[in-house]
Amino acid sequence: MSEAAVMQALPHELAPGDMIAPSRTALVVVDIQVDFASPEGVLGRSGMDMSGCEVAVDRIETLIDAARKAGATVAFMRVMTRPESDSQALKTWMERRGTPGHEAICRIGSGGEDYYRVAPQPGDIEISKLAYSSFHGTDFDMQLRARGIDTLVVTGISTDCCVDSTTRDAFHHNYHTFVVSDACATFDDELQLNTLKALWLHCSLLTTTDAVVAAWGG
């Protein structure tokens, strides 16, 4: 499904500046890592079409630049795993669905956990996580509260997994959320549309890269 079709199918907000004022907003960059976004990572090597990820990362780079210029906080989320950190629930789920021993992802020291085409700078928030949600088992909420942030503009990979989980958890933590529909990606067009629709129906507003950049003075 094309981006134009997604835009037609779902409402998108203009994200005026008062909704995402830089002083109280964080741009959240979810899992832009080698294993998730690069053709050289685990998913790329498995034969996944990574072209949608490259387009999303192009726009995330634009949003990071706009956030820095406007003075908004930039927050980088990153999966960091070791064999001993894999949960029993994860391993049992994989066994029950017939994929035991599925190739591990974002292992520390493998290179797959490294950022892909983006990098934090001093003053940014960095979160290492084991689970889909950026809030689960981390101090992300505490760091946001310390900066007076109440609004999150969410981007990243994949829309249906860690972007979705992070956005829903943000809502449960009482944050206002915007998902940038053209700056997140998954590996199935129908899943992309349905995930965005579910987020819009239940917990988030949708916006676009151009709308956010304009709201931040671009």
Helix fraction bin: 25-40%
Task: Give unreliable regions as ranges.
Answer: none
> What structural category characterises the helix and strand content?
alpha/beta
**Strand tally, please?**
6
Ends distance:
28 Å
Main pleated sheet: 6 strands, parallel
How large is the radius of gyration? 17 Å
What secondary-structure arrangement, pairings included, does this model have?
Elements: H1 3-9, E1 25-30, H2 34-37, H3 42-45, H4 51-70, E2 73-79, H5 88-96, E3 125-129, H6 140-146, E4 151-157, H7 159-172, E5 176-185, H8 189-202, E6 205-207, H9 209-215
Parallel strand pairs: 1-2, 1-4, 2-3, 4-5, 5-6
Features:
about 220 residues; alpha/beta; 6-stranded parallel sheet; 9 helices; globular
Explain this structure.
The protein has helices spanning 3-9, 34-37, 42-45, 51-70, 88-96, 140-146, 159-172, 189-202, 209-215; strands at residues 25-30, 73-79, 125-129, 151-157, 176-185, 205-207. The relative contact order is 0.23. The chain is an alpha/beta fold and 218 residues long. It is globular, with a radius of gyration of 17 Å. Helices cover 39% and strands 17% of the residues. α5 links the parallel β2 (73-79) and β3. Strands 3-2-1-4-5-6 form a six-stranded parallel β-sheet.
